[in-house]
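Input/output pair, single chain:
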Amino acid sequence: MKLPSWEGQYLDGYTNYKVDSATCKRFEIELRRAKEIKVFLGTWCSDSQEQVPRIMKILEQNINSQKVELVGVNKDKNRPLIAKEFGLSKVPSVFLITASNDTLKLFEEVPSNNTIEMDMLKSYSEYTRKEAIKALGEIKYEKPIKSRNE
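Output:
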């Protein structure tokens, strides 16, 4: 089997990338609890060729790699069908499926917050903030009980 022409670039990108472990520690518990992580990529895409080795190194250092599924897509990003189900518009993209079956987009295309790890942390932080707000909305407040002295 002939390996892709960018294999050497992939290995270099993986080997030479230094994972920001301090940032990863801030969301590693959620990564470990994840049911599944899907990494969408296009072998034809230069961003995928550059970012996927880094993404894989981050994930390998923080979770069980059996939870990670690599999904190759065509240039229209509509094959396989699962790409449409996730509303994929750019590659590479990383989606985390939580234990409660929520889908969280951790990363898309290129880092917008300096590093992949910072993008993932920002996405995770926004998700947990929304979950906290949702949980607060579900709390029923009761009238305080009058004290005996009143």
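The helical segments are 7-16, 21-25, 28-33, 46-62, 81-85, 116-138. DSSP finds six helices and four strands in the chain.
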